[in-house]
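U., I forgot to send this yesterday:
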Amino acid sequence: MRRLMNNKISGALAFFCLLINPFLSAQSELCDGQLGNNIFTSGDFGSGTQNIVSVNPNLAPGFQYTTIVPPSDGQYTLTNDIGNWSSVFQSWLQIGDNSPDPNGYMMVINASNQPGIFYERIVDNVCENTEYVFSADVINLVMSQFTGHNLPNVSFLINDVEIYNTGPIAQDEVWHTYGFTFVSGAAQSTLKLTLRNNAPGGPGNDLAIDNINFQPCGPVASLDISIPGKICRESIFPVLSAHISADTFVMQWQISYDSGIVWTDIPGAIDTNYVVDILSTGQYYFRFIYSNTLSNLSNINCRIFSDTIVIDVVPIKFHVTDTICEGLSFEFDGQSYTETGTYERYYTAVNGCDSIVIINLEVVDDPPIIAEFMTKPPSCIGKADGSISIVSVSGTRPPYKFFVSGAPVPSPITSVNVAAGTYTVRIENEYGCFDEQQVIVPDGPPLMISTINDTTIILGHSLQLEV
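Result:
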């Protein structure tokens, strides 16, 4: 990893109060603390089944968009896989985008002879005195064995002023994340962010860009819980504690009822400690959001998210209902039940509260299920194209289960191919009542080859043999 020294910006950028911390590393290491939402929601260029995006996305004002690949000098395209192009430069890597999505798009650029802008965006609603990360994933498309090619070189600009430069991007066939962090100034509300090409065109200077990110970065934060593990209803509820490595901050606890998809503010929960007071059973997700001022906390471009913690609230009483056939047993925790009735089992939980399991069991009469099967031998000895088929079933109604030697046959299939042999076949209804019998599938006929009987002929004569 290559870390550059911090620099202070003066002159035209003095109003930013920028704290520059540029270096080459993984995205998670650009921010030492927690991250907020990526304001560039389309910075991964989206996803689709089209190999090449047919509509001009108008992303690079310094380059021409093309759907004819490979692109010429000064052109770019959006694609999900260079390997699926009808034609590609011999020296180029044939790769997909930098994500687990097989259909994810990336920007592929054949850079121009003059500096040009790859990407530019105006960001409104920027928060004052807030640290942000501006980064992008970049790869040199020229394979390592091809020498004498110009190396790409990309600048990151804020309001048309270069703040960070990648330097020459090596032909190492690896995606790299380039970027930096900075702190917006007081009363700062709008920024223009730009990625610019610096290297000359001609042979080389061919690259792909993906995952452009611009997101707030907050101080290190963590959360913990006073009572870990599952929580019983009506027990002593846990306390969630937030830890934020900042002298001043504002925060808000949030809850999600759908595994973290939608988050809702918990009214009044703005202190570092929050006592969970949920009464109903279920699984709940908790986190907190935080920022440096109350106005920034209400702005989705400024708030930072903590990690998530999950609380399972389990009931004191559990109800189990089942119906079985006469002659069978219902097994629960090492105990067998064979008669209709209601049964209770008591348990002492390790997390501080006892629970009761109530079993409602019904035993039904065993009906006279009668099944008739038909077998067909294989076409010849050793083949497995014989069959066992259901002819009729009485004493129960579909859907019932069909087993051949213990293996379930998926419904609604009523015939299976088998080799010669003896099989146990079973028809079973929803309560476990069944008819079971053995059937024999005979072997198929042997392969017999014969010709004419022994015959004597005169020397010099001929005889036609027929098989």
